[in-house]
Amino acid sequence: MEASPNQVPNRRGQLTPLGRAPIQRRCFSAPQPGWRILREANLSTECARAQAAARVPRAHGDRGRAQGVGAAPRQRAQTPLGLNAAIPIGRLKRRAEFLRVASAGTRCARPGLVLQAAPGRAVGGPTRVGFTVTKKIGDAVTRNRVRRRLRAAAAQVLPRRAAPGTDYVLVGRAATLNRRYSDLVGDLEAALKRLGARQGKAHK
Question: To pair with 21 at 20 to 30 A between CA atoms, which of 30, 96, 147, 197?
Protein backbone atom coordinates (compact mmCIF):
# COMPACT_ATOMS: atom_id res chain seq x y z
CA MET A 1 0.00 0.00 0.00
CA GLU A 2 1.37 3.35 -0.99
CA ALA A 3 1.19 6.23 1.47
CA SER A 4 -0.73 9.30 0.41
CA PRO A 5 0.61 12.75 1.11
CA ASN A 6 -1.97 13.13 3.91
CA GLN A 7 -0.99 9.88 5.69
CA VAL A 8 2.03 8.83 7.75
CA PRO A 9 2.95 5.36 8.98
CA ASN A 10 2.74 4.64 12.69
CA ARG A 11 4.85 2.21 14.75
CA ARG A 12 2.91 -0.80 13.55
CA GLY A 13 3.29 0.19 9.98
CA GLN A 14 -0.30 1.34 9.65
CA LEU A 15 -1.14 4.52 7.81
CA THR A 16 -2.50 7.29 10.00
CA PRO A 17 -3.98 10.53 8.69
CA LEU A 18 -1.62 13.44 8.95
CA GLY A 19 -2.29 15.80 11.86
CA ARG A 20 -3.87 13.05 13.99
CA ALA A 21 -1.71 11.81 16.85
CA PRO A 22 -1.41 8.10 17.08
CA ILE A 23 -3.42 6.47 19.83
CA GLN A 24 -1.15 5.03 22.50
CA ARG A 25 -2.63 2.32 24.66
CA ARG A 26 -1.35 1.82 28.19
CA CYS A 27 -1.44 -1.49 29.87
CA PHE A 28 -2.21 -1.53 33.60
CA SER A 29 -1.48 -4.66 35.49
CA ALA A 30 -4.07 -5.89 38.02
CA PRO A 31 -3.23 -5.28 41.70
CA GLN A 32 -1.52 -8.21 43.30
CA PRO A 33 -2.81 -9.79 46.56
CA GLY A 34 0.40 -8.84 48.33
CA TRP A 35 -0.33 -5.14 47.87
CA ARG A 36 -3.43 -5.34 50.06
CA ILE A 37 -1.52 -7.17 52.80
CA LEU A 38 1.24 -4.56 52.80
CA ARG A 39 -1.31 -1.74 52.91
CA GLU A 40 -3.15 -3.32 55.91
CA ALA A 41 0.16 -3.87 57.70
CA ASN A 42 1.08 -0.22 57.23
CA LEU A 43 -2.32 0.93 58.54
CA SER A 44 -2.05 -1.30 61.64
CA THR A 45 1.45 0.04 62.33
CA GLU A 46 0.21 3.64 62.11
CA CYS A 47 -2.70 2.88 64.50
CA ALA A 48 -0.35 1.26 67.01
CA ARG A 49 1.93 4.31 66.96
CA ALA A 50 -1.02 6.63 67.54
CA GLN A 51 -2.22 4.58 70.55
CA ALA A 52 1.28 4.48 72.02
CA ALA A 53 1.53 8.25 71.73
CA ALA A 54 -1.82 8.64 73.53
CA ARG A 55 -0.61 6.51 76.46
CA VAL A 56 2.43 8.65 77.20
CA PRO A 57 2.12 9.76 80.90
CA ARG A 58 2.02 13.38 81.79
CA ALA A 59 5.06 15.16 83.14
CA HIS A 60 3.57 15.66 86.61
CA GLY A 61 2.43 12.04 86.87
CA ASP A 62 -0.73 10.68 88.44
CA ARG A 63 -1.27 12.39 91.76
CA GLY A 64 -4.08 10.04 92.78
CA ARG A 65 -1.92 6.91 92.98
CA ALA A 66 0.93 6.11 95.31
CA GLN A 67 4.30 6.37 93.64
CA GLY A 68 6.57 3.35 93.71
CA VAL A 69 5.86 -0.33 93.23
CA GLY A 70 7.43 -1.33 96.52
CA ALA A 71 5.10 0.71 98.76
CA ALA A 72 4.69 -0.96 102.15
CA PRO A 73 1.16 -2.38 102.73
CA ARG A 74 -0.93 -1.13 105.59
CA GLN A 75 -0.61 -3.10 108.80
CA ARG A 76 -3.79 -4.13 110.57
CA ALA A 77 -4.12 -3.96 114.29
CA GLN A 78 -3.71 -7.43 115.79
CA THR A 79 -5.35 -8.60 118.99
CA PRO A 80 -2.79 -9.88 121.51
CA LEU A 81 -2.97 -13.61 122.18
CA GLY A 82 -4.88 -14.48 125.29
CA LEU A 83 -6.92 -11.24 125.23
CA ASN A 84 -10.50 -11.86 124.10
CA ALA A 85 -9.30 -14.82 122.05
CA ALA A 86 -12.19 -16.67 120.43
CA ILE A 87 -12.78 -20.28 121.47
CA PRO A 88 -14.68 -22.93 119.49
CA ILE A 89 -18.25 -23.55 120.64
CA GLY A 90 -19.85 -27.00 120.40
CA ARG A 91 -23.49 -28.03 120.70
CA LEU A 92 -25.53 -29.86 123.32
CA LYS A 93 -27.78 -32.35 121.56
CA ARG A 94 -28.89 -35.01 124.05
CA ARG A 95 -31.74 -34.49 126.49
CA ALA A 96 -29.68 -35.92 129.34
CA GLU A 97 -27.10 -33.16 128.82
CA PHE A 98 -29.77 -30.47 129.10
CA LEU A 99 -31.13 -32.04 132.29
CA ARG A 100 -27.67 -32.25 133.86
CA VAL A 101 -26.99 -28.54 133.22
CA ALA A 102 -30.43 -27.58 134.59
CA SER A 103 -30.07 -29.68 137.76
CA ALA A 104 -26.37 -29.43 138.60
CA GLY A 105 -25.55 -25.99 137.24
CA THR A 106 -26.27 -22.39 138.10
CA ARG A 107 -28.75 -20.08 136.45
CA CYS A 108 -29.25 -16.37 135.86
CA ALA A 109 -32.52 -14.83 134.65
CA ARG A 110 -32.51 -11.69 132.54
CA PRO A 111 -35.42 -9.92 130.81
CA GLY A 112 -34.63 -11.47 127.44
CA LEU A 113 -33.41 -14.96 128.40
CA VAL A 114 -32.40 -17.38 131.11
CA LEU A 115 -28.82 -18.68 131.12
CA GLN A 116 -27.86 -21.98 132.72
CA ALA A 117 -24.24 -23.09 133.11
CA ALA A 118 -22.46 -26.17 134.44
CA PRO A 119 -18.89 -27.48 134.16
CA GLY A 120 -18.38 -30.01 131.42
CA ARG A 121 -17.88 -33.66 132.26
CA ALA A 122 -14.47 -33.95 130.62
CA VAL A 123 -11.68 -31.91 132.17
CA GLY A 124 -10.44 -29.42 129.61
CA GLY A 125 -13.29 -30.38 127.27
CA PRO A 126 -14.90 -28.08 124.72
CA THR A 127 -17.34 -25.31 125.52
CA ARG A 128 -20.85 -26.26 124.41
CA VAL A 129 -24.22 -24.55 124.20
CA GLY A 130 -27.83 -25.64 123.82
CA PHE A 131 -31.16 -23.84 123.34
CA THR A 132 -34.52 -24.51 124.99
CA VAL A 133 -37.82 -22.92 123.95
CA THR A 134 -40.94 -24.39 125.51
CA LYS A 135 -44.45 -24.47 124.04
CA LYS A 136 -45.51 -21.73 126.46
CA ILE A 137 -43.71 -19.24 124.21
CA GLY A 138 -46.02 -19.89 121.26
CA ASP A 139 -46.53 -22.04 118.18
CA ALA A 140 -43.78 -23.73 116.16
CA VAL A 141 -43.12 -20.65 114.01
CA THR A 142 -42.74 -18.40 117.05
CA ARG A 143 -40.49 -20.89 118.82
CA ASN A 144 -38.24 -21.16 115.78
CA ARG A 145 -37.90 -17.38 115.61
CA VAL A 146 -37.01 -17.21 119.30
CA ARG A 147 -34.46 -19.99 118.86
CA ARG A 148 -32.83 -18.19 115.92
CA ARG A 149 -32.45 -15.01 117.98
CA LEU A 150 -30.84 -16.94 120.81
CA ARG A 151 -28.45 -18.63 118.37
CA ALA A 152 -27.44 -15.28 116.87
CA ALA A 153 -26.75 -13.79 120.29
CA ALA A 154 -24.79 -16.85 121.40
CA ALA A 155 -22.69 -16.85 118.22
CA GLN A 156 -21.78 -13.20 118.85
CA VAL A 157 -21.02 -13.39 122.57
CA LEU A 158 -19.94 -16.89 123.62
CA PRO A 159 -16.77 -17.31 121.51
CA ARG A 160 -15.13 -14.41 123.44
CA ARG A 161 -16.99 -14.40 126.75
CA ALA A 162 -17.66 -18.05 127.59
CA ALA A 163 -15.59 -19.97 130.13
CA PRO A 164 -13.57 -22.84 128.64
CA GLY A 165 -14.90 -26.33 129.33
CA THR A 166 -18.37 -25.11 130.35
CA ASP A 167 -21.79 -26.23 129.14
CA TYR A 168 -24.41 -23.50 128.64
CA VAL A 169 -28.16 -23.64 128.01
CA LEU A 170 -30.05 -20.57 126.79
CA VAL A 171 -33.75 -20.67 127.66
CA GLY A 172 -36.14 -18.49 125.69
CA ARG A 173 -38.65 -16.23 127.40
CA ALA A 174 -41.79 -14.40 126.28
CA ALA A 175 -39.81 -11.17 125.78
CA THR A 176 -37.08 -12.81 123.67
CA LEU A 177 -38.95 -12.38 120.39
CA ASN A 178 -39.73 -8.66 120.61
CA ARG A 179 -36.77 -7.50 122.66
CA ARG A 180 -34.26 -5.27 120.92
CA TYR A 181 -31.35 -7.34 119.66
CA SER A 182 -28.71 -5.15 121.30
CA ASP A 183 -30.53 -5.52 124.62
CA LEU A 184 -30.72 -9.27 124.12
CA VAL A 185 -26.96 -9.40 123.58
CA GLY A 186 -26.50 -7.28 126.70
CA ASP A 187 -28.65 -9.71 128.68
CA LEU A 188 -26.42 -12.61 127.66
CA GLU A 189 -23.23 -10.72 128.48
CA ALA A 190 -24.58 -9.69 131.90
CA ALA A 191 -25.67 -13.25 132.66
CA LEU A 192 -22.25 -14.61 131.74
CA LYS A 193 -20.58 -12.07 133.97
CA ARG A 194 -22.93 -12.89 136.85
CA LEU A 195 -22.43 -16.65 136.55
CA GLY A 196 -18.66 -16.21 136.26
CA ALA A 197 -18.61 -14.27 139.49
CA ARG A 198 -20.68 -16.97 141.20
CA GLN A 199 -18.40 -19.74 139.99
CA GLY A 200 -15.36 -17.80 141.23
CA LYS A 201 -16.88 -17.51 144.72
CA ALA A 202 -17.77 -21.23 144.73
CA HIS A 203 -14.16 -22.21 143.93
CA LYS A 204 -12.91 -20.04 146.81
Answer: 30
Q: What is the mean pLDDT of each run of 10 residues along the chain (204 residues)?
A: 58 61 52 51 58 52 48 46 65 93 93 95 85 95 97 95 93 96 96 76 49
What is the topology classification, in CATH, of domain 89-195? Ribosomal Protein S5; domain 2 (3.30.230)
Q: How far apart are CA 7 and CA 103, in angstroms?
A: 141
Angle of helix 140-161 versus helix 181-203 axis, rounded to 10: 50
Helix (H, G, I), strand (E, B) or coil at 75: coil
What whole-number distance in Å separates Cα of residue 143 and Cα of residue 49? 72
Check: CB of residue 179 under 8 Å from CB of residue 145. Answer: no
Q: How far apart are CA 57 and CA 24, in angstroms?
A: 59
User: Which residues are registered as beta bridge partners of 116?
Assistant: 107, 169
Euclidean distance between CA atoms 36 and 155, whole angstroms: 72
Coil, strand or helix: which one is 140?
A: helix
For residues 24 and 35, what is the distance between their CA atoms, to the nearest angstrom? 27
- Spatial distance between the Cα atoms of 118 and 165, rounded to a whole number of angstroms: 9
Instruction: Give the integer Cα–Cα distance in Å for 161 and 86.
Output: 8
